[in-house]
């Protein structure tokens, strides 16, 4: 029998190695991007935020914003450091109550190194104190902060948060929000969700807002200025709060005539998409020079220019449809934008039917016939348009045409079951175009890969066989312009970010 002799030093080293727990393996930095191929620097890895508490003070005269942001999160890996997306000047960061070191890098990265590195699954409470002038900050060549004559507004897509609070700036990391804003008396602060309270002291008024359902960072909004505020409720009992800048001039009447129908339109959309997914509703129109609108959750942002030619109910339909398609169910990656825009545009087509100004089929026929095969319109793939074409008109119009093609393929019963079932299946979560295809196949019982490929992913006009099977093969000379078309086209700048 042979006996193996182990030297005492070697034995001690072996025992020491066995005593080290696996969790003591080296911690590593969280990724500086969440992994979106369109926007590699957007969002971050290594943690998941569940709640933002933002306590702010804003001075409209100087555009100075001071804030304390508290993020309630959880580590998703053993973290040596992690990033937040942010642009203003930071004075202090604390992680789990202890001061952390920090530095800035890249376009909008705030790199934080905790004194005690958190383990995977550990809770994180991150407190960031900051101040700055949002309108002075630019990232990637632009700003998402709109300076107005009486204040400022944060509203843009695909990013706006970094100009007013630090966060994980990608729709994959949705969270609830408390937003408390101190502004001079006589000035209003508008944000998402329900107004919990407001009170004045020593010449300043604090507005406290709460969003109690998960919300993507780009859907969080802040508007400070002098507004007229109206309130009411929908027939379903949802409170409605709308706000209009006091200096909208000639656009004021048309804006009110459109947005005051918000409750009516939300109730109507619920008939197609299922129950309204939030406990607050409304819209606001600040005095900005930009031309787009945005589906900021529960309270869409509208620019005055949307009402330059009179009332524009169609744009209200579009932004409210997003509360289901884009807000309640958010995209997984920005290439999945068709689920947001194709269905919001299709809601406008359904409204056209409702108003007797052209059916969805007639609008689909018109879109197909209006663009010859060599039109660049057909080179944009709504199912994966690329970052430069993310808000191209084809994503909207060709995207809605794809929705009509699906309706014609599977029939009304399955189609309208999908319209309602999709927001219920993925409520307050994220999903992709591939997820939608699988769900549509599950509900309809039909294979749909060829249809989705033809209408969403081919950079060319669907040929006559495919168009005839989708019942949109009429020639241009045989198609008249639906009466609703000009109103719908008036919203084409809706996301010209």
CATH-level-4 superfamily name of the domain at 330-491: Neutral Protease Domain 2
Characterize the overall form: globular
Q: How many DSSP-defined strands? A: 21
The main sheet comes to: 8 strands, mixed
Sequence stretches where pLDDT stays below 50 over 5 or more residues: 1-20
The residue-averaged pLDDT reads 93
Radius of gyration: 25 Å
Lateral arrangement of strands in the main beta sheet: 6-5-9-3-2-12-15-14
Total DSSP helices: 12
**Content of β-strand:** 25-35%
The helix/strand class is alpha+beta
In the CATH hierarchy, the architecture of the domain at 330-491 is: Orthogonal Bundle
* CATH topology label of the domain at 330-491: Neutral Protease, domain 2
Instruction: Please estimate the helix content.
Output: 25-40%
Q: What is the class of the domain at 330-491 in the CATH system?
A: Mainly Alpha
Oligomeric state = single chain
Task: Please report the distance between the alpha carbons of the first and last residues.
Answer: 81 Å
What does this structure look like?
By secondary structure, the chain is α+β, with helices and mostly antiparallel strands. It has a domain at about 330-490: Neutral Protease Domain 2 (Neutral Protease, domain 2), CATH 1.10.390. The chain contains twelve helices and 21 strands. The strands form five sheets. An eight-stranded mixed sheet has the order 6-5-9-3-2-12-15-14, with no helix packed on it. Strands 1-4-8-7 form a four-stranded mixed sheet, with no helix packed on it. Helix 5 (about 335-355) crosses helix 7. The longest helix is centred in the C-terminal third of the chain and has 19 residues, at about 335-355. The termini are far apart. The relative contact order is 0.09.
